[in-house]
Amino acid sequence: MGSEHHFEVTRDFDGLRLDAALAVIFPDLGLRARRALWHRMDIRVQGRSCPPAFKVRAGQIVDVTPRSDVGKRKTAVTGIRVVAESSLFAALFKPARVHSVRGKSPGSVEEALTNLFPGECPVLLNRLDYLTSGLVLVGRSPDARARYLELQESGKVLKTYLALVDGQADHEICIKRAIDSAKRNKVRVLSADNSDPIRHTMVTPLGRIGKHTLVRAAIRKGQRHQIRAHLAACCYPIVGDPLYGKPGVQGDNAITMFLHHLDVRMPHFHAFCLPNWHVDVRGFLHQNV
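The line above is the sequence of Pseudouridine synthase; the predicted structure tokens follow.
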């Protein structure tokens, strides 16, 4: 992914934006991912550096090369680190209170990619909520992203989370209820089930911690807030969840939202990372291997 790319703009892309024309050499990257290339690649048209909105013309030559300063740039975010990696994928640890995707305020996992993978064009494969800690997957090439999506659609990606929930959960449950994830702050759990098993949440109690229960929640293809909303809908809200938590354990006074992406498995790749909670969960995990 760190190699140079050169192509001539065809008539099909005449008059379109440069970030759209880059689909010629990065067909598996979405528009947002193509725009992110400017943070780690030098992109020129007819030898001149151009922004994403530049309108290209048929016959122009586009050059895409790794930036020479990539390895020298430092991330503004501390705590992000590589947990596991292969030629196609990598898994990073994201601390709580760090955004996954670049936003208006500085500091995100996406911004750290340039420094962690110099000379490459890595792309995020999943996102975690701001208050959720744990594993974020990275594709190290467009082929990696396409492969991940293929594996996910076939149910071959297994993501396991740890959550500390309010109440006493004492048996394993498979939550099948469909989720309305229309653009709103909170998603809505519907009364009807989702017939697609890769959209279900499997919840396994691991043990009691005071008035709460430590659970393992496994998903294969998640939706926004799926675990948080599913647990709350079953009367087991996550401790510290400001959106779905019960009165008395939610809001800004909660030091931690106890949801952590612990483990991810797919063919030829595995990553595991314990949470930085004040609660020691290792004993519970060893008892429930």
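Note on the example: The mean pLDDT is 87. The chain is about 15% helix and 30% strand.
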